[in-house]
Specification:
With 85 residues, the protein is mainly α. It has one domain (5-71). The protein is built from two helices and no strands. The longest helix is centred in the middle third of the chain and has 47 residues, at 24-70.
Length: 85
């Protein structure tokens, strides 16, 4: 009779744990690498959110400045401006 998937999984986990008992430094490195990957993913996702917020605020600022400049009055004839002597 062939062993089931749960027996195979249990046997694999037991052999992995036995190997890690003999080499605890390897286990520590695996845990450290996993923690580093989680941290990098979190930092990059928060950085992307920050960049999105900054880009949106930059576009809003640019729109506001454009609206203000559109309301400025430009003289029709620029020769009317005289220098003070």
């Amino acid at each position: 009779m062939n062993p089931g998937i749960s027996e195979e999984t249990g046997q694999t986990v037991r052999s992995f744990i036995d190997a890690m008992k003999q080499q605890p430094a390897t286990l520590a490195l695996i845990i450290a690498n996993t923690a580093m990957l989680i941290f990098i993913f979190y930092a990059l996702s928060k950085g992307a959110e920050f960049r999105d917020t900054m880009i949106k605020s930059q576009f809003e600022y640019q729109k506001h400045v454009t609206e203000l400049l559109a309301k400025c009055v430009v003289p029709d004839n620029r020769t009317e401006l005289k220098l003070l002597e």
